[in-house]
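Hi R.,

Here's the chain you asked about this morning:
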Amino acid sequence: MAKPPSPKAQKHAQRWQRLRQFDTDKLADVVGHIGQPLKGVIGVDEVGRGSLVGPVVAAAVCLPHTLCATEHDWLLAIDDSKASHLNRAKRLRLKDAIQAHGLWGLGQASVEEIAHLNIVNASLLAGHRALAALAQQFDCDLTHYLTLMDGRHRIPQHNAPQLSQIKGDAHSAAIAAASIVAKAERDAMIDTAALQYPGYGWEQNAGYPTPAHQKAIAQLGVTPMHRHSYKTVQAACQAEAVQQTLS
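And the predicted structure, written out as tokens:
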């Protein structure tokens, strides 16, 4: 007799079914509304909006309907990338599995673009670039898919069916998968930057304004990687300028 699944395994399986069903239901609603078939759902999510350093990174992911958890048990781990059961190593393994079996694309907006556009519009630009990368890599016509955007905004001038979903990574399998790919990608980028600019603890804080990071900024100053359009960084620049004047 087969051993019954553990409560933890049951919880993961129930979450996966709920996430997948959300995408299925949204796709059916849109198909019914527009009156034409669609091939699947592409989830788009970004990471790094609250970080003080580096680009904002977005991923676009489509998990084919042919993927099932009985054959690919890694699907059961898909969740909001910030979920407590997903550490860096697990996110990286999931990223590799998602990219091996799904359609995906990555995009980013630079520190300069964040300053010029603001973080919301820069995030949408990164999402647009992620979708374009997916379309190019897989010779994919985006008008044949439903795009689900995390958050309250939609990508401007995206000529395809599109919906937004607040806290989408907790509702949609495609958005949750995108959040994992985007976070694993950005974490690797910031880890590399941490080697160039040691002392700020980016390998632990990913550039977010932790007390240790803010203390390091006060002691070491700001770097070209810092987002000078952010108030926390601006305040540090002003304090540094005052200190130089007094010295």
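The beta strands are 40-47, 56-62, 103-109, 145-150, 162-165.

Let me know if you need anything else.
M.
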